[in-house]
Amino acid sequence: MFCEKAVELIRELHRMGDGQLPAFNEDSIRQVLEEMKALYEQNQSDVNEAKTEGKSELIPTIKFRHSCLLRNQRCISAYLYDRLLRIRALRWEYGSVLPTTIRFHMCAEEMEWFNQYKKSLATYMRSIGGEEGLDITQDMKPPKSLYIEVRCLKDHGEFEIDDGTVILLKKNSQHFLPRWKCEQLIRQGVLEHVIS
Amino acid sequence: MDSQSYMPVPPGIGMEENFFSLDDILLSHERLPCRTESAFPRLGFLEKSSETRDIPEGTKMEMPLWLAKGLYERKRRVLSLELPKVYREGWRTVFGADPTVVDLHKMGPYYYGLGSQMLHFDSPENPEIANTILQTFIGRFRRTMDSSQNAYNEDTSALVERLDCLERSLFKAGQSGLNSFQLVLAACSCVKCGSADENDLIRDFGMEVIDMSLWDGHIDLVISLQPQLSWLGRSIEPIFRPRLKRTDTTRRHTRQKMSDYSSLTDKCVQADEKKTSINIESSDLFSSVPAIMEG
To answer: Structure pTM?
Structure first.
């Protein structure tokens, strides 16, 4: 059946549901484009034959190939579009400079698109928030972790946290604990929040 | 990589597919048994069982959904499609009896999607099929939603095992709402207990609550009603905005807002601790809760 290669591209992207960018599959795209070319040429000749010799029974076949062409087109468009969505997300996750490993996964045109996107975003950020502009790509989440670094100020003995582990609170020991668990001890003066 | 910034094209609703949606493309790749009602010359090589140059009329073969949709014509007889087992009379009665026990992942992972697409083919059973799909969804929705709102920080594989793809994405949305809300609650409790003060909140969140009109002091949260949490979580997020460079006026403005905010979060945390429910004053937050939840 036609269009299997095209769907492979889609599956490749679908497997990485969290937004990672796989390497640009130039080979597969080339093969899909070749299949499309072959289908198109066969259809061209059949259409001419149907017109000149009146062979209307060829029409279902022509429709068949046409559906395959549309399907290939859809798959490739969706592949490229989804990759652009992922690349756009990269600007928000990694900032202006991308790690080299990721850069190798992008083709030249995608790199060009990324640069243009960066420019548009920078222009927008400069235009809001007064004179210096506003970097909206910073601080996108509430407190980075629900865990905080604490130092023990006095001996307090054993302390159990939610998942069952028992921590021994000795004077001057440092621990990495859930925030809400430490609150009370901080208030009592047993623990001290260490801001690194 | 945090997937918050990657927003793929979602699958289409109902009978429409989204052109760019990866899910819809994979869904329409599913194969269906069908019978050709006209001949397809010169395509014999596709049908491995026949040795002829053409696909003759009346061949039984399996076609992917996208092809069947492309070739199907209401007036001319090009193709006739068989309904997959799950949408036929027998299974429809099973779904009617008790939709929650069926393993929809096994019955083809795209039960709702494929069922909606089958409606394109003008089968006389279309109204029954459509009704069954709808009732199945309604019957199962409550359970999916409840489980997604109550599974925090635990292994959810047992819960999602028997869900089809649409339900799984709903489950994921519920979980992300729940997680976001828990983060907000944790931040609120920091302000409350004094282990963080307002400035800490601004520094840690890096945000400023700009529009307090929703939090007029009249809004109380119905914390005991778990299902609303994800809706609440999603409503809260847009309220936070990125930090603005502060001028003196905005600084004063901010301080006032932050103290309003603290007293509100006090209430939230108290209500949460006592597991009390308080009256809802504003229906705006909850106006999007579907009527399905009532039943």
So the answer is: 0.67
